Amino acid sequence: MSAMQGLLRRSASANGYSPISWSSAKKLFHPASAQRYRCGFVRSLTLGGTFPRSQPERPDLRAGDYKFSKGKYLLSSFCSSSALFSTFPTPTKQMANVPYLKLNNGKEIPQVGFGLWKVTENTADVVYNAIKAGYRLFDGAFDYGNEREAGQGVKRAIDEGLVKREDLVIVSKLWNTFHEKEHVEAITRQQLEWWGLDYFDVFYMHFPVALEYVDYNKKYVTGWQNLDGKIVQSKATIQETYQAMESLVDLGLVKTLGISNFQGSLIMDLLRYARIRPALLQVEIHPYLTQVELVKYAQSVGIVVTAYSSFGPQSFVELGWDKAADTPLLFEHPIITPLAKKYEKTPAQIVLRWATQRGLAIIPKSNSPQRLAENLSSASGFDLTQEEVDSITALNKNLRFNNPPDYLGDLYIFA
């Protein structure tokens, strides 16, 4: 044992920590990290994986489950050489202090993820850089048309040892044109092939509406219209589709089921026949569409709610939608901007913190490294008062931007 290793071990013991063996350390981290400094204690300090002495060694758990701050302090005190720091690997668990939400099937998801809607340029690089920034949940869908490219970004990050597959929560969705039971498994397997994965962590029914089947080889993405340019509903029921999705879990293709764009009565009906309860509900939520009662109901039956389009009109202005263009931007709203100044945060962080304090998961996106970090920190670090949360909730106008009749002239899903 070197003098430095001995000093670190004595310092750890004095602070209530016990060293772990190198063999255990290798189980905690990616095999690519199994290199220099074969002192499990030094490695565990660097990665926040030190074990309180009162707790038995748990090589089945990851480093992110253990204390970090004290270990970091000890390392900086005794290993100040930049050369030494550079030899330690990157943690495989999410680096930022992002809370995890427990689902009704016992699994967990990060409260802040990265949404892939409208990520159509340099998608692989965007996903890879988001992983480097600490994102661990990626919310995709067949309809986004970028699953192959997103999978390339994931593969690059895994190949380089930034993460392991099990560190990531990969989300996708079943599109409306594949609701018949005979199409559900086939399109899911195709989507997994595009991602380069064996399973999805979460798989949603994207909308509670079934449309006529469209062969994706003839039209990708299939969209809302058939090959004749018409919107034609199919006869598949929500029950038929959901039970086919339950079979995906039985086959190991999907770990967790979710529903998206469902309203309360549809959820109540689905729960009557669901063999595998949906664990997640993804719906549009922002200060102009707070959905208080829907959130309250979903949470009361053990369903975690994920908010999409958290910034309201901001996401839709670039699509040229009049409703969005005519709505005041939340980032400039006189309720939001004083709070941003008070807490020394951006307006976006205030809006996101309003959502996370309601217990919602969020899936913002950005190409800016600074905004990536800001968004990721929006589930912790500061708290709005209840009065401030209520003042933002009071902005509600029941204003829905993703409303199919507005852009299709049909399918009154939310009527």
Automatic annotation (TrEMBL):
Alphabetized InterPro entries for the sequence: AKR, Aldo/ket_reductase_CS, NAD(P)_OxRdtase_dom_sf, NADP_OxRdtase_dom
PROSITE patterns the UniProt entry points to: ALDOKETO_REDUCTASE_1 (PS00798), ALDOKETO_REDUCTASE_2 (PS00062)
Keyword Secreted attached: no
Protein name, per record: NADP-dependent oxidoreductase domain-containing protein
Q: Which UniProt keywords apply?
A: Oxidoreductase
Q: Which residues form the NADP-dependent oxidoreductase domain?
A: 112-396
Please give the family membership noted in the entry: Belongs to the aldo/keto reductase family.
Any GO MF annotation of the entry: oxidoreductase activity
One short Pfam family name for this protein? Answer: Aldo_ket_red
